[in-house]
Write a structure and sequence with these properties.
Structural class: alpha+beta
Distance between the termini: 58 Å
Shape: globular
Number of helices: 12
Number of strands: 20
Helix content: 25-40%
Strand content: 25-35%
Largest sheet: 8 strands, antiparallel
Radius of gyration: 21 Å
């Protein structure tokens, strides 16, 4: 019998875990990426250098392989906010995936907020704006101390800022507009409270919530007005009752956006002011940034990327695999250094004895230029720690930051965000 194959959009670091998981499932992989040097192209069973935003070219390539006997049964990606492309491909081939409607809702932040609000799901005050005057008017109307301004259609914190002074309105509005594909900008009330990342598996009325992490923002105040996350903690330390409230909210969101089978990713704040969970954003896709590839597998022994693949290729799903096998505390953190030429990275050899360091990865090659860091995609590197309790993990996080040094323009820097200056 011909092996089933999975079409994967992207062959960068974000998609490598999916490629490896598919191979472990005895599946063939078909990978497309516009970067001819993408690692995943070499690891795939079949591959071609195609910018997957060119959906017609991707469909044509898949049809050519199918005509040659390759049994492609579904399509997925990780870490790329392209459910609209997934939806178009799945519709063409009658595969399982988000509908065109669901994809549109989860890639348009204004439409998303409208759908959720009309479904009775708590969201911050929000508005589509076309000028600095619009922003000031809504800000006065809401009476909030700060507001968030962002493009309606960007991901990875691109163009996202916190506005706390009216003197910054013009600059930050232009910044958001510049980062919007459509040129449209949304503002929303800034909600104070614990920030949670969720990732849930949805299948015909069944809901599983393996991904539930505390997001870390308290160490990145130096980046203001830009919003910058410095990783997270899995599992979350949020109280159990609040945990259940958020899980129930995710299930209601899935119904509101009509997602019946697949993955839903949520950015939630448990509001101190309103005393309930409020939805910041949702996505009908798997995340990148180690959440599904490292934090959850290390914490619980759960690989729900495998479940996502099983859903996509319409094969048997063993939901017992979504039950925790063990419990460890896992955290990921990022490196931040000033812009300039990266001369060297020092101290790695001193960390080899720490078996609880599961990953250290850098995003820039030696002698390349690091830009001013304004969004998540520009962070310099990442590391992942797993241990038996929060204290041991935090101790190792501190050791990594103290040990690794980046030499940029012949000056040495720690990668800890508290030392970063815009």
């Amino acid at each position: 019998m011909t092996k089933k194959a999975l079409l994967i959009l992207g062959g960068s670091n974000d998609q490598l875990f999916m490629i490896h998981t598919a191979h472990e499932m005895n599946l063939e992989t078909v990978v497309v990426d516009g970067n001819k040097n993408a690692k995943g192209l070499k690891q795939a069973t079949y591959s071609k250098t195609i910018d997957f935003s060119n959906t017609d070219a991707v469909i044509k390539y898949a049809e050519e392989l199918i005509a040659k006997g390759v049994n492609i049964c579904g399509v997925l990606t990780m870490g790329s906010d392209v459910p609209h492309i997934i939806a178009k491909i799945t519709k063409h081939f009658s595969w399982i995936g988000p509908s065109i409607e669901t994809a549109k809702i989860t890639t348009d932040k204004f439409l998303m907020k409208n759908i959720l609000k009309n479904s009775g799901i708590a969201v911050p005050c929000y508005a589509l704006v076309e000028s600095s005057e619009d922003i000031l008017a809504y800000w006065d109307k809401w009476g909030s101390q700060s507001i968030i301004i962002k493009p309606i259609d960007a991901a990875g914190s691109r163009g996202v800022s916190i506005l706390s002074s009216s003197a910054d309105i013009d600059q930050l509005y232009k910044h958001a507009k510049k980062n919007s594909k459509s040129g449209k900008v949304i503002i929303e009330e800034y909600i104070e409270g614990p920030q949670i990342s969720t990732e849930s598996v949805i299948y015909d009325g069944q809901y599983f919530h393996p991904g539930f992490a505390d997001r870390v923002y308290n160490e990145t105040k130096n980046f203001y007005p830009y919003i910058m996350e410095n990783g997270g903690w899995q599992p979350s330390q949020l109280e159990e009752t609040k945990h259940h409230e958020i899980c129930n909210q995710i299930e209601n969101i899935a119904k509101a956006i009509k997602l019946e089978r697949g993955i839903i990713k949520g950015d939630i704040v448990y509001s101190i002011k309103y005393k309930k969970p409020m939805v910041i954003e949702i996505a009908s896709r798997l995340s990148g940034g180690d959440f599904s590839a490292s934090l959850v597998p290390l914490a619980y022994g759960i690989n729900y990327v495998k479940t996502a693949i099983q859903i996509a290729i319409n094969t048997h799903i063993d939901f017992s695999e979504l039950e925790p096998k063990h419990k460890y505390i896992v955290a990921n953190r990022y490196f931040f250094v000033p812009q300039g030429v990266l001369n060297s990275i020092e101290g790695l050899e001193k960390l080899q004895k720490y078996t609880n360091i599961k990953k250290i990865e850098f995003n820039y090659k030696l002698n390349s230029t690091i830009p001013k860091i304004e969004n998540h995609g520009q962070r310099v590197g990442v590391f992942v720690i797993s241990d038996i309790n929060y204290a041991k993990v935090q101790e190792t996080i501190d050791i990594v930051y103290k040990t690794i040094h980046f030499v940029v323009d012949n000056k040495s820097y720690s990668g800890h965000p508290q030392y970063y200056k815009l």
